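so ive been stuck on this for like two days lol. basically i have the seq below and the ligand is zinc ion, smiles is in there too. i just want the complex predicted, nothing fancy, no docking runs or whatever. if the output looks off dont worry ill sanity check it later, just need somthing to start from for the group meeting slides
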Amino acid sequence: MFRDTLKKMDTELKDVVKYTLDINGVKHNMNNYIGKQIKIEWSGDVICNCGKTMNKFYRSGFCYKCYWESPKASQSIFKPELCTAHLGIEERDLEWEKKFQLAPHFVYLANSSGIKVGITRGSQGVIRWMDQGASQAILLAEVPNRRFSGDIEVSLKRFVADVTNWRKMLSGNPQLVDLVKMKEELAVHVPAELKQYILTNNTVTEIRYPVTQYPKKIKSVKLEKTPIIAGELLGIKGQYLLLDGDRVFNIRSHEGFVSTFSHQEISQQGLLF
Ligand SMILES: [Zn+2]
């Protein structure tokens, strides 16, 4: 059912991040297409997580029913500090919320467009950083549930951002920062009852992206406005494809769009496009 919809690219931490796009039954090694022509063509349909097909999403990638009823679209998904499963209090579906919230979570600092604080589930730290286009990251704390990570995040938001400035992230490499020192300074502001969860391991992960050319004046393109997006792939950072003409395409914000993907050598482009 979801074989033909766009999904965020899989990432692997290598010398430079390796990106794989899984669509139409094919796994594309996207790094190989840099310097070549790619084309994404939207059919006009989107499919919600629940399987409902529509011509557009209601909000945030959900149909109307899921947006208002699914635990995947509840308030605490967007604001982890509102999680209550650890108290046995249901928001929309306690069984689902227990599974999702009552698992180890990490609080991290990442540098993608300046320093930000974020949270992530157990094994996903590195994946999350690559998805955000971070160039450096460090784990700050490991907590037993999502709520505690939200509480730490809230306490640090007074000092650092909690969102990535994607325009800045796509405009080049950020200035490197001493994340160990940053962590030590911020750790002081973690609430006393949560200080026990601060990690002593200060490993800094550095991440490089396959980008040959950054856009100068960023133009974000969207399938709703332009159902066929084609051009030379100049690089990939975070979940963005950097295309010629200073265009950037956020694959993640098009998850669920029924589309086809194709690629071609530039010298042969007349044959395909
Ligand atoms: Zn739905």
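The first strand starts at residue 10 and ends at 12. Helices lie at 64-69, 75-78, 94-101, 125-132, 146-156, 166-169, 179-187, 269-272.
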